[in-house]
Structure formats: structure tokens, C-alpha cells
Design brief:
This protein is of the alpha+beta class. Helix 1 packs parallel to helix 5, helix 1 runs parallel beside helix 6 and helix 3 packs antiparallel against helix 6.
């Protein structure tokens, strides 16, 4: 794993940008097409795009990315689609966290790293439309590389057929990589997106993987791309179906309470949040996942 990975880094970073562009276009199209329901008098919202920077300890270039956030839309109350490519040297606390989880040899002697990925969280206006999370990423050090990510559905009002559709799309994209991938990544998501202090899952699951390195970069990159490709066909049909469904004040209240679970999980347990803040990435981009409004009973 000491080979030169510059070409692979470039390809991975370019793919995350391509996927970001596809998702942003699809979400803005949903806003433009939505002409019914209680928010039909609003003009179609668009993403606000800004550059982000990672802050290195010595002030040197450490990479950054794009933060794309749409607020107050007809369909999306708040959605963020971020990409980043960052690099530099892992601090002592970040080294300890990474080494403990991944067992990377030589990190103390050579703590350089490179990471690129896409991260998405959508919080919806209509409580019947499920919130959703998706991310995929590549991480590299001079001694190791791996991929991670997945997507999971977070409805406050659950519909079995929506859950089934979301999972079917994940399985369809994963099955060509091996029959064991979908059940293994589904179980991983169920374990990862669990809130111990609430004794419950954050949502209805999806797929998730971390620290994935088979030793064949092309194979792992192809798997990661298909995880990303599964997202729009898994999610957009659910939005189109539920966005015009009537909802009550009680439904909205249930949504706000459910969002509290999302905030608790991301602030207490999420590895990506911890890593982003620990390594000096733009705090607004890291915390983009938090809902615009939430409540606790």
C-alpha cells in the first residue's frame, strides 16, 4: 500500500464532485416541479454555494470544498450537500482516534493524511417525507487507504412500502458486487445508526460501511460509486410521492421531536462530525447536518 495514489485520489475526488452535481440538480428540480400543497405560493428555492477551508495548525494550505445548502424551500426545509478534499497532518488526538479504530501502522511516525468525500443531509417541510442522510468517502495515509459511507432513511412517520423501496434500491446496486454485501452493510447500518441512550435506532436503516479496503482499489472504488448511484433512485420517488400529502400540526410536532434524535446522534456519536471538528475543517460545513428546528419533550 505504499504505491503512488495520486491518480486514484484525483479520480475519487472528481467522482464525489460529479455525484454532488447530480444530486443538487435533482433536488432543485424537485423544488421547481412542486406546484401543490400548503407551500405552493413560495418561489422555488435554490442552493446557496460557498467554499469551505480546512484550517491547518501552521496556516498552510490544507484543502477544503464546497458547502451547498438550500433553506426554506417548498419541499426541503433544509438540505445540505457538501464535498471536500482535505489533507495535512493528523494531530495527536486525531491520530489516537484513527489508530484505535483502524489499527493503522506507522501513523505516529508519519501522520500525513488525505481525505475526500460527499456528505448529504435533508430535512423536509412535509412530515410525511422522510429525512435522509448519505455520504461516501475515501481516506488515505502513506500506510493505508480505505473507503466508507452509505445512506439511511429517517422518517418521523414510517411507511413500510417506503422503507422497502429504499432498501430494495440499495440491494439492487450492491448485489453485483457480491450477494453478501447488502445484508452485511444493512446490519452495519442498523448497528451504527443506533442511539444507545435512547435504546432505539435513528431511523429505518439503510446501508453503511467503514474502513473498507479489500486490497483492490478499483473494486472498492466501483463499490463506493454504486453506493452513491443508489441514492437518487432510492430517495427521489419517495419525495415525489409524499410531498403533496396533507399534514397536521400533530404531524409537524412529531417531526420536530424526531429531529431531536438526529441532533443527539450527530453531536454525540457520529464519527464524521468528530473527525471533521478534530481536524480543523469548517465547523459550519461539519455541522450542516443539524436540523433547522427541533424540539424535545
Amino acid at each position: 500500500m505504499t504505491q503512488d495514489f495520486e491518480t486514484e485520489k484525483t479520480r475519487a475526488s472528481a467522482w464525489f464532485r460529479e455525484l454532488r452535481d447530480q444530486i443538487v440538480d435533482a433536488f432543485e428540480e424537485l423544488e421547481r416541479d412542486h406546484a401543490q400543497g400548503p407551500l405552493s405560493d413560495r418561489s422555488a428555492a435554490q442552493f446557496d454555494v460557498s467554499e469551505t477551508k480546512r484550517h491547518s495548525d501552521d496556516g498552510s494550505d490544507a484543502g477544503g470544498g464546497l458547502m451547498s445548502v438550500m433553506r426554506g424551500g417548498r419541499v426541503f426545509e433544509k438540505v445540505g450537500v457538501n464535498i471536500s478534499t482535505v489533507f495535512g497532518t493528523l494531530g495527536e488526538r486525531a491520530q489516537m482516534a484513527m489508530a484505535a479504530r483502524k489499527g493503522i501502522p506507522g501513523m505516529k511516525e508519519d501522520p500525513r493524511f488525505w481525505a475526500s468525500g460527499i456528505s448529504l443531509v435533508a430535512h423536509m417541510q412535509n412530515p410525511h417525507v422522510p429525512a435522509v442522510h448519505m455520504n461516501t468517502r475515501m481516506f488515505w495515509t502513506p500506510h493505508a487507504w480505505w473507503f466508507g459511507g452509505g445512506s439511511d432513511l429517517n422518517p418521523c412517520i414510517e411507511y413500510d412500502e417506503d422503507t422497502q423501496h429504499f432498501h430494495d434500491q440499495q440491494k439492487e446496486k450492491l448485489d453485483p458486487h457480491g450477494a453478501d454485501f447488502y445484508p452485511r452493510l444493512k446490519d452495519w447500518a442498523d448497528e451504527y445508526f443506533y442511539i444507545p441512550h435512547r435504546n432505539r435506532a435513528r431511523g429505518v436503516g439503510g446501508i453503511f460501511m467503514d474502513d473498507h479496503c479489500s486490497g483492490d482499489w478499483e473494486t472498492d472504488f466501483s463499490l463506493t460509486q454504486d453506493i452513491g448511484r443508489a441514492f437518487l433512485p432510492a430517495y427521489v420517488p419517495l419525495v415525489r410521492k409524499r410531498r403533496v400529502q396533507p399534514w397536521s400540526d400533530a404531524d409537524k410536532d412529531a417531526q420536530l421531536v424526531h429531529r431531536g434524535l438526529y441532533a443527539e446522534y450527530n453531536l454525540v456519536y457520529d464519527r464524521g462530525t468528530k473527525f471533521g471538528l478534530e481536524t480543523g475543517h469548517d465547523a459550519n460545513a461539519v455541522l450542516m447536518s443539524l436540523p433547522p428546528l427541533a424540539k424535545w419533550v
